[in-house]
Amino acid sequence: MAERKSMIDRKTSETTISLSLNLDGSGKGNFDTGIGFFDHMLNSFAKHGFFDLDVKADGDLYVDCHHTIEDTGIVLGQAVKEALGDKRGIKRYGSMILPMDEALVLCAVDLSGRPYLVFDAEFSKDSVGYFDTEMVKEFFHAVSYTAGMNLHIRLLSGSNQHHIIEAMFKAFARALDEAVTVDSRIKEVLSTKGSL
User: Fold this and answer.
1) What is the value of pTM for the model shown?
2) In which order are the strands placed within the sheet that holds 103-110?
3) CB atoms within 10 A of CB 64
């Protein structure tokens, strides 16, 4: 099987981002976005999805965290799409209901090529560290639309904002890991249309 890796560089007037991804990694990574909590979430995503992921982001944090987080989501989505190639042999679907202390999060992924996000959660605080909680949805929206994935994230229960957000990133990692897994029974792509 060909290596499922990608490297993306993206530069705008607001951010400069370099990202490398190996879908068949071991959960190793390096993260430097200037937002400590976001680095922690990206590390959790890599570790629990068994993805090797390096992210270096320089953004206009003097404005706020919005551009850095959203643009990182855009680049991560591009990297997933590029690393998957023609999607031959992948399971396509993945899901996880993940607990983290009092928090319980459902995540489901379909690597259909059709982008759509359903995000069912509200936050009781505006931020965790220097990470604005409203950016959780924006990040996953960016990933889903640039990767071309149908992504559902639903908060089933929880009160601690740190736990809820971390459970979302970990659940997404586990669901995506399942979806990108190659199944020897799938000879082409898992679609009656013949393409994803």
Assistant:
1) 0.97
2) 93-100, 103-110, 150-157, 116-120
3) 13
